[in-house]
Each structure stands twice: as C-alpha cells, then as structure tokens.
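sry for the spam today, last one i promise. struct tokens for design, 389 residues
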C-alpha cells in the first residue's frame, strides 16, 4: 500500500514577491523559483500571482522593468490547504487553468503547487520547524508550535506542580536543617539565613547567608536528578536530536544521541543564576555607583559568554540522567506521533497565541499556581506554615 502524500510533501518553496517589488525583482524571483509562477504576498497571505504570460503582457504594453509588480499580477488563483491529500489536489488542478499556491491553516503562503510537481516525487522533505519539548510525570511532550504530541495538558500541569513541590521541599530541608543545627548545636545558621544583608558580600555572616540561600537551588537540582523525570528529560532531548539530524527514530539510533540540548530551558535558568551570582561577585567591594555599574556590565558580558556552557553542565549533572529503554521508547513514540501530525502542515507558521499555548508554559504555571493555592488553603485551615520563604 502506497504512503499517503499531502500537498505539503509536493509543493515547491518558491520565494514570494511583494506588491511594491519591481518587475525586475519579480522576474529574478520567478527565475530562481523555477515553477513558472511567482506568488505575490502581503502580510504573509497571497494576494496575487505573476505568471510568464502576465510578464510578457507587461513588456508588450511597454511597462518599465522598475515599475511595481502589483498592476500586473493576476488575482485569480487557487489556494490549496497544505494538508489536502496530493491526489485530491491533482484532480483539482487537472480541471483548472488557474495557478495554485499552498496555504497553511491560517491562510499564509507556504509554496507553489503545479500538476507536474504533484505527479513527480517529493521535491523537498517536509519542514517540521523548531521542536520544543517538556519532560512530564506522564512522559514526554513535544511540539513544533503548530501541533503537539505526547503528554497533554494534565502532564504539563503536573510538571508545574512537581517543580514547585521540589523547590518547596528543598526550602523545607535547608531551612529546617538550619533551624535544627541552631537549636541543637548553637550554630547560628538560621540567623545567617535571615540576616537582612544575606545575599551581600560584606561580612562572614552575610556570605554564609548567601551560601545557605544558594544551597536551596543546589538541593532542588539534586532532588530533580533523583527522580525518573530526569531520565524522561534526557529521552526527550535525544529524540529531538534524532529528528533534527534526519535520523530514523529507532532505539539503537536514539541511544547514540546526546542528552544535552542547546535549546533546553535549563540554559535559561542557568543564565539567570549565572548573572545573579556574577553580579554579586563583581560588586564585592564596589564603593560607588560607577563601580557597581561596571560590575553589572562585566557580569552581563561573562553571562553571555558562558551561559550555554553552564546550562549544558547543569543539564548533564542535574536535570537529565541516562534514560531507560522504556523512557526512550516512550519518547520515540511521541516523536513519531509529532511527525505524523506535523507532516500535512509542513511549513505552516502558527500565530503567536497558538505557539504560546503549545509551548506548555501556561499549563506549567497553572500547575504550580494550583499547588500553591492548595497549600495556602491548607495553611489557613490548619493554622500551620507550609510555604516557607
């Protein structure tokens, strides 16, 4: 049984022109595209096409090559969805003399469609776009902004709740440990932590306060490393690497992929932590405002130079760990599901709202806020402190 193909598999990625482009520029783009049809777009959507016959008509009527292309474009053309089956599109073009362009679900231009192109082998591989993902307690979540696969809204919300719970547990352990050490042995760790200058680099007690506060973040990372979600996180990265390299999604191949990815959200957290730490270090002993400004500038410079390296280190030692075969197979299944969903929409560019929704950020925040609200409710009902700061 032959594989089902879509318009997205068979169209030609012809660079479009704009209505105010010159006829000369339009002719150059038409020659580069090689389809005999040049789409004219405005705000991403096709508004007309320039064909060889219309270009010939313009020259015959004495048009100057520097005139805009808008008066000479043909506004009669077919808009075919890129998720339309190729057989259906071929039948449509067989009974129409109008040129056709492929559009995504939001009406934006993707490529040119010809009857010859539909009959031939695929001209280019489907374009999936940049893939993002999340590790959740329910497995891997992947998206290219247009479609998503794997763990859904519940999984993303559970991730937000889990991250907040881990951070809260790290707070309990560090602050509880300091309070116990101060009561049991008389070591004033809890006083150092609560010092009004904790986070500054002046006196020994204030340095201790900064170290103790930083230990919460370190313990949070260690707790994450201990959980299965770190292996799921690594499996997600490895499958994304395989897709981006054009490798087949098989267990033997995916096992060879790196578990550190340059677009991981850990890098962003690492950059923030690096900047905050360096800004405090460089401001040590700064006596005036100019010195502090210079310290901040140096901290920013070093952060821009090393944030990805530091983020990769944190991924390697904390937020990922070698995955099990079961975690890899789950991630492979999600990767195959994403490719299957994305293929008919190859080249589609989602609006910002859909991209934000599919990113999973909102669902994670809702999960974290939801757990926080439950804990605050329990605090008010039971009269105890659960959310420590």
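last one done:
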């Amino acid at each position: 049984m032959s594989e089902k193909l879509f318009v997205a598999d068979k169209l030609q990625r012809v660079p479009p022109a704009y209505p105010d482009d010159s006829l000369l520029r339009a002719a150059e783009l038409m020659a580069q595209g090689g389809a005999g049809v040049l789409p004219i777009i405005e705000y991403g959507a096709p508004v007309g096409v320039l064909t060889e016959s219309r270009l010939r008509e313009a020259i015959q009527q004495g048009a100057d090559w520097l005139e805009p292309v808008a008066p000479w474009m043909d506004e009669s053309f077919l808009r075919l969805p890129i998720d339309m089956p190729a057989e259906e599109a071929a039948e449509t073009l067989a009974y129409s003399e109008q040129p056709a362009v492929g559009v995504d679900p939001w009406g934006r231009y993707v490529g040119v469609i010809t009857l010859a192109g539909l009959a031939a082998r695929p001209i280019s591989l489907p374009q999936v776009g940049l893939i993002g993902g999340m590790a959740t307690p329910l497995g891997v979540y992947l998206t290219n902004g247009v479609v998503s696969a794997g763990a859904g809204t519940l999984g993303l919300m559970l991730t937000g709740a889990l991250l907040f719970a881990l951070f809260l547990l790290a707070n309990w352990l560090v602050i509880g440990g300091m309070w116990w050490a101060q009561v049991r042995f008389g070591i004033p760790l809890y006083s150092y932590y609560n010092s009004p200058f904790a986070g500054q680099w002046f006196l020994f007690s204030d340095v201790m306060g900064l170290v103790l506060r930083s230990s919460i973040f370190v313990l949070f990372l260690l707790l994450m490393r201990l959980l299965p979600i770190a292996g799921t996180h690594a499996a997600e990265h490895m499958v994304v690497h395989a897709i981006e390299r054009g490798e087949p999604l098989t267990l033997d191949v995916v096992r060879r992929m790196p578990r550190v990815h340059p677009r991981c959200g850990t890098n962003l957290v690492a950059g923030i932590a690096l900047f905050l730490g360096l800004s405090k270090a460089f401001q040590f002993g700064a006596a005036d405002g100019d010195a502090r400004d210079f310290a901040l500038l140096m901290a920013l410079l070093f952060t821009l130079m090393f944030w990805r390296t530091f983020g990769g280190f944190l991924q390697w030692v904390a937020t990922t760990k070698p995955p099990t075969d079961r975690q890899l197979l789950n991630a492979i299944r999600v990767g195959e599901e994403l490719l299957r969903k994305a293929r008919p929409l190859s080249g589609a560019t989602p609006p910002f709202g859909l991209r934000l929704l599919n990113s999973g950020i909102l669902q994670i925040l809702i999960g974290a806020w939801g757990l926080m609200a439950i804990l605050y409710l329990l605090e008010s009902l039971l009269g105890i402190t659960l959310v420590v700061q």
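Residues 153-185 form the longest helix (33 residues). ok im logging off now
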